[in-house]
From TrEMBL:
SMART domains: FCD, HTH_GNTR. CDD domains: WHTH_GntR. It comes from the Bacteria. Keywords: DNA-binding, Transcription, Transcription regulation. This is FadR family transcriptional regulator. PROSITE patterns: HTH_GNTR. GO terms for molecular function: DNA binding; DNA-binding transcription factor activity. Residues 9-77 form the HTH gntR-type domain. It comes from Paenibacillus contaminans. InterPro entries: GntR_C (IPR011711), TF_FadR/GntR_C (IPR008920), Tscrpt_reg_HTH_GntR (IPR000524), WH-like_DNA-bd_sf (IPR036388), WH_DNA-bd_sf (IPR036390).
Length: 240
């Protein structure tokens, strides 16, 4: 993979956008294995942590597949592609409205949380717990915490055991990634306490799923997303 160093380095977003454009242009076709983190860091002239953040973001958005110990590959089916098995490929990429994204999330994710509480496995709980620990350690790292946030919500969908819900959440993940970034800039990272309150809300959803209380898990997820919606409403009112 040929890449021109980005000078001066401006963080993971530049790397992420450059790799994404290479995928979109066909320079990195589906199934292509990317260079190692070390080699990419050297090519772009940034640190390894910046590369990892970029790759994690692209994975959350559906562009990459990161295999533990096996490397990073361009997804064989890219975001926006629609097949008979994945009819939601473009459904959640047609809106720039944060409000519309949140309306879909309220309906979809409260249901996912309820079903996950019923169907979750011990492995699902372990993975959700690990993500929460990561979020706790990243309270001062906005970009990395944002990525962990997206993974937490995706893992809840996986814990439902329903492949259709997983496909819908994966299709929504690109819009989730963008909307979370905007919403965090509005409020969550105005102060550390806000980030800690957000983490507590995620923990409360996890506890209900762990207790296999589907009704409570759905209620807590909806309550969490209603708070997020309220942040957006206040921001919109302030801008008018």
């Amino acid at each position: 993979m040929n890449a021109n160093p980005l000078k001066p380095p401006k963080g993971y977003e530049l790397v992420m956008e450059h790799i994404k454009k290479q995928i979109e242009s066909g320079a990195l076709p589906p199934g292509t294995k990317l260079s190692s983190v070390v080699d990419l860091a050297g090519s772009y002239g940034v640190g390894r942590s910046t590369i990892r953040e970029a790759l994690s973001a692209l994975k959350a958005m559906g562009w990459l597949d990161i295999r533990q110990g096996g490397g990073t590959f361009v997804k064989k089916e890219l975001p926006g592609e629609t097949t008979e098995d994945k009819p939601f490929g473009t459904l959640f990429q047609k809106t720039d409205s944060l409000q519309e994204v949140l309306e879909v999330r309220k309906l979809l994710e409260s249901g996912c949380a309820s079903l996950a509480a019923v169907n979750r496995s011990e492995e699902d709980l372990r993975l959700l717990g690990e993500i929460l620990e990561e979020m706790s350690s990243l309270l001062d790292d906005e970009a990395a915490s944002e990525q962990a946030d997206v993974r937490f919500h995706l893992q809840i969908a996986k814990a439902t055991g329903n492949s259709l819900l997983v496909q819908m959440m994966e299709s929504l993940s690109q819009r989730m990634h963008a909307s979370m970034k905007d919403l965090r800039r509005l409020w969550f990272y105005a102060e550390r306490a806000s980030a800690e309150r957000l983490l507590d809300e995620h923990r409360s959803v996890f506890e209900a799923i762990s207790a296999q209380d589907g009704s409570l898990a759905g209620e807590r997820m909806l309550k969490h997303l209603l708070k997020v919606e309220n942040v957006l409403r206040k921001a919109n009112a302030a801008g008018n």
